[in-house]
Amino acid sequence: MGGEDSVMFKSDDNNFFQIIVRPNVDKESVDDWYKKQFEIDEIDDEKIINTDNWHGIKSDDGLVIYLSDSKNEYLFVLTYGPGPDDILNYKNIFDMFVKSFNIGN
User: Fold this and answer.
1) What are the Cα distances from residue 76, in Å, to 5, 22, 27, 69, 101?
2) Which burial class, exposed, middle or buried, applies to 103 when counting CB atoms under 10 A from its CB (0-12, 13-18, 19+)?
3) What pLDDT is stored for residue 47 in this prediction?
4) Phi-psi region of 48 (alpha: psi -120 to 50; beta: other; left: phi over 0)
5) What is the dihedral sign for C-alpha 36, 81, 21, 4?
6) CA 19-94-87 angle, 5° bins
7) What is the Cα–Cα distance from 83 to 80, expressed in whole angstroms?
8) 99: closest CA among 78, 81, 72?
């Protein structure tokens, strides 16, 4: 499922993973974008994720990852929605999904 700027993978029990891609019009770092969006001055170190391919920030509950490509051309939002019962049936798969996420050139 999805549109031009998103992809959603949904299970039969209504859990889902979603990727949303948006142009980073201001070409700002994901850190600066995150601070502006959530009106904060500092980002806790434990929320920061760095890979060889991207830099990101995870939400307090770890179910949303905000990241940008190395050139800051796009912002990506990776989300795990646990469904109506709020049980994290696929958290380990989401963690693997995030670790293996790769932005092509």
Assistant:
1) 10, 6, 13, 8, 11
2) middle
3) 96
4) beta
5) negative
6) 110
7) 9
8) 78
How far from 25 is each of 29, 33, 47, 80, CA to CA, in Å? 11, 11, 24, 25
Q: Single out the residue of 14, 17, 15 nearest to residue 6, CA to CA.
A: 17
Say what the pLDDT of residue 45 is.
Answer: 95
Task: Give mean pLDDT, residues 26-33.
Answer: 95
* Sign of the CA dihedral with 17 first, then 79, 15, and 46 last: positive
pLDDT: is 105 or 4 the higher one?
Answer: 4
What is the average pLDDT score of the chain?
91
Which has the higher per-residue pLDDT, 103 or 75?
A: 75
Give the Cα separation of 97 and 62 in Å (integer): 13
* pTM exceeds 0.70 for this model: yes
